[in-house]
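A further point concerns the way the authors explain their paired sequence and structure data. Each protein is reduced to its one-letter sequence and a matching series of backbone shape codes. An entry of this sort, consisting of the sequence and the corresponding backbone structure tokens, reads as follows:
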Amino acid sequence: MDPLLNSTTFTRLVAAGTPLLLIATSNEQRSESLLGRSLQQSFKDMPEPCAWTCTNGFPGQQDTNDPLQALSWAVRQEGRGIYIFKDLHWFWQDNPSIQRLLKDFAGQRRAPGKMLVLLCPKTDIPEELQPCFTILRHPLPDRAEIRGYLQAHRDKDPTLGRMITSDDDLNRLTLAAQGLGLRDIDGALRLARVTPDAGAEAIRTALFQDKKQLLARTGIMEFVDNELDPDQVGGMENLKHWMDKREQAFGAEKLASGNNLPKGVLMMGISGCGKSLFVKAIAARWQLPLVRLDMATVYEGTYGSPESSLRQACTLAEALSPCVLWIDEIEAGISNQGFKSEGGAASRVLGYFLTWMQEKRTPVFVAATANAIELLPAEMLRKGRFDEIFYIALPSVEEREEIFNIHLQKRDFQPTAFSPSMLAHSTKGFSGAEIEQAVTGASFEALAQGRPMSQQDIMETIGRTVPLSITMAEQIKKIEAWAFKRAVPASKHGRR
């Protein structure tokens, strides 16, 4: 990954006489402002940077709209100076004159202090020029910069001052804005201002909408609207206890802010038993944004090679941190079979993912789910990659009763009007999804006949259902045998 742009790095490059600098940035104004402040603080006698665009040229210089003419003018200038080119990347790929002028400038001997700086969204440098450039990446603003930006706007805007009334509001908005650029944050503030009687929560909602739009523009990941009540997840007591212990050790508020956030968990088990539901429960309980990565998207080639797509996804997750990165059915993209069919690409994807999991320093909680965990490479399963590997089995009779209670209450039925215990004993081998469908199907049948749902309606729906534990009995036994000594059961042992 390219080194990051900051004031210290930039001033050192200027002092060392670096001729050509490319800054990968999504916000030209923010990057230009940082360069100007850095020069003002470290080089008092250095003139302000001079910026070029293809529409206006250099300020006060006629006939510099043309990129070659503008570049020639900047090269001819004597003495120290920083010349910023905002649009040159649109013109240099197929223009040998521009490329030759840049190569000659990079090879000249000159006094330190003269530099040509290119601002580009990507680092697509022509092959001939790559040795000539120093590349820096201007990351999205960190937490300190975001907090300072919000505080400055609050202090000078009475409307925002009435909305952001405490340091706690400021801290929560800073977390919500993590992963956004200053322009996006400013847009959310403007949107919140026109909302009648809005408070800090309105700004927070607008910031999350901006994050959703950001991920929609990239296409590589999806921002998941997560309104799940964690109490609406039945069973999985061991998994819940694992979360309880971390909350007791570090505090729920610190986990929500990303402090001491665990690396992640890998949840394996039978389809329909609640793996995806519990990922949402983790994000909801720790009040973290939830982003979903589909491994099929990584391999489809729309966003480049598989390894570059995964790198982009991980970079986005780090920018949005603290967050939960949900990788659904991870074996679809990282598996032993994939090595045979994809060859080198699958090996590089695995290598990058394992390194990122081991070395990442930002609070990204990786919640991966797998139906066929035996397909995953052994390197993925060793200790240190994930904090724990949980096996989610078919629910016990006690868990089935709890699940029936949850789904009856969600549909405004009083469980006391039914016999959840009898229903639980009648659904041996049912998954949580199949129990939900039994209640949904019975409710629909009763509604179609214009009468309230009864216990008999649910029993009839159960009788018409062939559970997955029967249709896939051999595969389920194979999964259970694999998990017996290799994974922690998510549920306490109980009667099946």
